């Protein structure tokens, strides 16, 4: 298996780890267990990883971390929409 394929599989698995949380929040509209500070730090980190991927021209890094930026930004938006 090539390094690129391994990188893409690893990126998909780690990026997809937040999908169940996102679905749960959308269904229940309850963000009481979310930390907005944690999401801001995570979004900052994966955004920098995405930028690094562009600098190195590494598609697995760009795709997986770009997806994470979008997903975690969605969670942060949900936090502000559904907080009580």
TrEMBL record:
Species classification: Bacteria, Pseudomonadati, Bacteroidota, Cytophagia, Cytophagales
GO cellular component: membrane
Spans traversing the lipid bilayer: 6-25, 37-55, 61-82
Record keywords, A-Z: Membrane, Transmembrane, Transmembrane helix
Source species: Dyadobacter soli
Protein name according to UniProt: MtN3 and saliva related transmembrane protein
InterPro entries: SemiSWEET, SWEET_rpt
Domain of life: Bacteria
GO molecular function, one term: sugar transmembrane transporter activity
This protein's record includes keyword Mitochondrion: no
One Pfam family this sequence matches: MtN3_slv
